[in-house]
Write a structure and sequence with these properties.
The chain is mainly α and 220 residues long. The chain has a domain of 127 residues. Helices cover 75% and strands 0% of the residues. The chain is built from nine helices and no strands. Helix 3 runs antiparallel to helix 4, helix 4 runs antiparallel to helix 5 and helix 7 packs antiparallel against helix 8. The longest helix has 22 residues. It is flat and about 65 Å long.
Length: 220
């Protein structure tokens, strides 16, 4: 794939900016109204454009895996701002959870696309996904024990993935110990909130299905 050139992105931005200001000069649009009423949405654009730029750079040069982190993070931040602006009374903390998940996705992408060479990326990926799920659980159930269980189970699954999944340095045997401890703690916290036991098997099925999908999609 041809290497991404930042001049293309800046050229597109300059052309679009010129068109917008020209339309304002001919009174086709009213920039003053836009800045007064829709200014928050401008930040969506400001964060989304460089986010897309970083991802294009990452796709054109997989060796520069670091670009995935600001790319997904900026897009997640753009979503968070847009979500809270357009839906100010929307349900729960979905925007914050998606933002955290987008950062976690950047690390998961690094692990998958580098052929497991950057295996360490599994840990921040799983940690951020765990926090995102904790935020969602806290918003839905308003139950501190369940949110704590979700976090511990998520962290246990994270270290379990480090132990089970292939790495460039071989099996990470040490990861089985924090995985076991956190899974046991998370399980007992879940059991203490007996009314939520019905969620264990669906979550287990989701986790197993996600693992099978990963095994199918990961590069050989």
């Amino acid at each position: 794939m041809k290497r991404f050139d930042w001049r293309i992105l800046w050229g597109i931005l300059l052309v679009l900016g010129g068109i917008v200001f020209l339309m304002d000069s001919f009174n086709v649009i009213n920039l003053a109204f836009f800045f007064n009423r829709l200014a928050p949405l401008l930040w969506v654009f400001i964060f989304a454009v460089p986010g897309v730029g970083f991802l294009l750079y990452f796709l054109s040069s997989r060796s520069d895996w670091w670009a995935a982190i600001p790319g997904f993070t900026l897009l997640g931040l753009s979503f968070l701002i847009g979500y809270e602006t357009i839906f100010p009374r929307a349900y729960g903390n979905l925007g914050a959870a998606v933002f955290l998940g987008s950062i976690g996705l950047s690390f998961l992408t690094i692990y998958i696309t580098t052929g497991t060479e950057q295996w360490w990326a599994l840990i921040p990926a799983g940690s951020l996904f765990s926090i995102a799920m904790t935020v969602i659980a806290d918003s839905i159930f308003r139950e501190g024990d369940l949110a704590g269980a979700v976090f511990m189970l998520g962290m246990g699954a994270t270290f379990g993935a480090v132990y089970l999944l292939p790495t460039s340095e071989g099996r990470q045997h040490w990861a089985i110990y924090p995985a076991g401890v956190m899974l046991v703690i998370g399980f007992f916290i879940m059991v203490s909130a007996a009314q939520f036991l019905g969620y264990i098997w669906p979550l287990a099925l989701i986790g197993l299905g996600a693992y099978l999908i990963y095994r199918y999609l990961r590069p050989a």
